[in-house]
């Protein structure tokens, strides 16, 4: 998100002063800054929706489940929530009436595709995280002070 904040204007040929520019002109028309912030908002929400899929299935030491779509039809409320969120998000970033209500501005289709790509990237990060060996994180599950990692002593001293 920080990369998109600082490099987004360069990527999408948006020119404005990140610090001094206003979100709306004196006549109320949206500026490039508001469009950039709407892109950030869209990207954040789509990454969170993708993370909802990542959090559906948790792995354990005995059973490592890598497929986030396993038993996806087991909870219809999940689909209702995801569809409502996706539709509201699309309305907030596409239709002028909803954009005015939520303080956004319509974004281009390229920006929409970029946000979707960032959401898919979030799915990939979740998959790679699930491939992490449990031995790498074993020390965080223990609460006994006998087997604490060495760096804990350095922090506590």
Furnish the topology, listing elements before pairings.
Blueprint lengths: L1 H10 L20 H25 L19 H19 L1 H7 L6 H22 L7 H4 L8 H7 L1
Helix pairs in contact: 2-3, 2-5, 3-4
List keywords for this structure.
157 residues; mainly alpha; 60% helix; 0% strand; extended
Low-pLDDT stretches: none
Morphology call = extended
Please tally the β strands and state the result.
0
Major sheet: size, sense and barrel closure? none
Q: What oligomeric state best describes the polypeptide chains here?
A: single chain
Mean pLDDT: 83
Helix content: 55-70%
Global structural class: mainly alpha
- Through-space gap between termini: 35 Å
Radius of gyration: 21 Å
Order of helices and strands: HHHHHHH
Q: What does this entry look like structurally?
A:
Helices cover 60% and strands 0% of the residues. The protein has one domain. It is an all-alpha fold and 157 residues long.
